[in-house]
Amino acid sequence: MNTSRGPRLEFAVGAFLVLALASVLVLAVASTNGKFGFARDSYELTARFTNLGQLRPNAPVKVGGVTIGSVSKIDLDPVKFDTIVTLAIDSRFNEIPIDTSAQILTGGLLGESYVGLQPGGDLEVFKPGEELVYTQPAVDLMQMVGKYMFSGTGEDGADAGGTPAPDAPADDTPPPTESTP
């Protein structure tokens, strides 16, 4: 019986397991942005939105595509019924102008939702706990498609019932004629 294959096979299986564990570790680091539950030094800002779309806690907060923080908490204001989103911003980014606007965006057509910040030009900066005043809610794609499909007007200016819109020319008007001198 040939026993020389045994150690080689065991080495190959061991190497395969080490590579599999290493790839799982890389995936774990990539999916948590390197945080692994360790709290980074950050400060909180809040923002009010009327529509969150698919925004969830731990969603990234980005400026120009660069992640500068995450959504730490989502609450409902019981008086105004606005959604209050608490943003945990990395303390390295402590010079955010006070006229910065926040918008809920989506990465691609079916991608994850995130909070995008558009910095302003004011020299005054946010202090921890302050609220972003300029916000734009998430765009509901299905609602937009529904409004377009059932808006009632087509290219010819007629609504869905076939009657011309008030500003559309009637079909029975004669074409303009040229007058000859």
In short:
Residues 42-120 form the Mce/MlaD domain. Residues 152-181 are annotated as: Disordered. By secondary structure, this protein is an alpha/beta fold.
Structure overview:
By secondary structure, this protein is an alpha/beta fold. Helices cover 20% and strands 27% of the residues. The protein is built from two helices and eight strands, in the order αββββββββα. Strands 7-1-4-3-2-6-5-8 form an eight-stranded mixed β-sheet, with no helix packed on it. The protein is extended, with a radius of gyration of 29 Å. The relative contact order is 0.14. The model has no long low-confidence stretch (mean pLDDT 81).
Features of this protein?
8 strands; ABC_MlaD; Mce/MlaD; 27% strand; extended; alpha/beta; 8-stranded mixed β-sheet
Fold blueprint:
Layout: H1 5-31, E1 42-49, E2 60-63, E3 66-76, E4 83-90, E5 101-106, E6 113-118, E7 131-132, E8 134-136, H2 141-149
Parallel strand pairs: 1-7, 2-6, 5-8
Antiparallel strand pairs: 1-4, 2-3, 3-4, 5-6
Number of helices: 2
Overall geometric form: extended
Name the structural class.
alpha/beta
Enumerate the strands of the largest sheet in spatial order, edge to edge or round the barrel.
7-1-4-3-2-6-5-8
Fraction of helical residues: 10-25%
Secondary-structure element series: HEEEEEEEEH
Largest sheet: 8 strands, mixed
Contiguous uncertain segments of 5+ residues = none
Q: Tell me how many strands there are.
A: 8
Give the overall average pLDDT: 81
C-alpha Rg, in Å?
29 Å
